[in-house]
Amino acid sequence: MKRWFADGVFRSVIRNAGYLGSGKLAGALLGLISLACAGHALTPAVFGILMIVHTYATGAGALVKFQTWQFIVRYGAPALLRGDTGFTRDTIRFAFGLDIASGLVGMVLAMVALPFLAERMGIQGENLVLAFAYCTLVPTMSAATAVGVLRLLDRFDLIGGQQVVTPIMRAIGAVIAYFAHLGFPGFVITWYVADLAGDLCLWFLAARELKRRDMFDAFRPGLFATARRLPKAWSFVWTTNIAHSIYSAWGPLSNLVVATVLGPVAAGLYKIASTLMDSTSKPADLLSRGFYPEIMRLDPASKQPWRLGLRVSALSACIGIGLVLLVIVGGQPVIGFIFGKKYLQAFDLLQIMTWSLVVSTAAFPLESLLYMVDRQRTALAAQTASAVIYLGLLYVLTHMLGLIGAGIAFLIGTILTGVFMLIPTLSSYRNRARYRQHPHADPVDL
Question: pLDDT band for position 445 (50/70/90)?
Answer without folding.
Answer: very low
